[in-house]
Amino acid sequence: MEQLTIRQASAEEASSVLELWQMSARWLDAKGINQWRPEREVSLIHEWDEI
């Protein structure tokens, strides 16, 4: 079994993290699972940044 190292993403990796999140959401949606909505969450994150 392959060992994985989990760490916090850096700011430079934000676009890659978002892409992974969006791909995961589309995969879940294709299976009929309405779990994640990255587009909604990202807009909320931007709102928090403005506060």
Please explain how this structure is put together:
The structure is a single chain. Helix content is 59%, strand content 0%. With 51 residues, it is mainly alpha-helical. The chain has one domain. It starts with 13 loop residues before the first helix and ends with a helix.
Mean of residue pLDDT values:
80
The H-and-E topology, N to C, reads as HH
Please give the domain count: 1
Q: What share of the residues does DSSP label as strand, in percent? A: under 5%
Low-pLDDT runs: none
Q: How many strands appear in the DSSP assignment?
A: 0
Largest sheet: none
Give the proportion of residues in helices.
55-70%
Distance between the termini: 44 Å
Question: What general form does the structure show?
Answer: flat
Radius of gyration: 14 Å
- What is the number of helices? 2
Protein name: Acetyltransferase (GNAT) family protein
Organism: Paenibacillus cellulosilyticus
In short:
This is Acetyltransferase (GNAT) family protein. The chain is mainly alpha-helical and 51 residues long. Helices cover 59% and strands 0% of the residues.
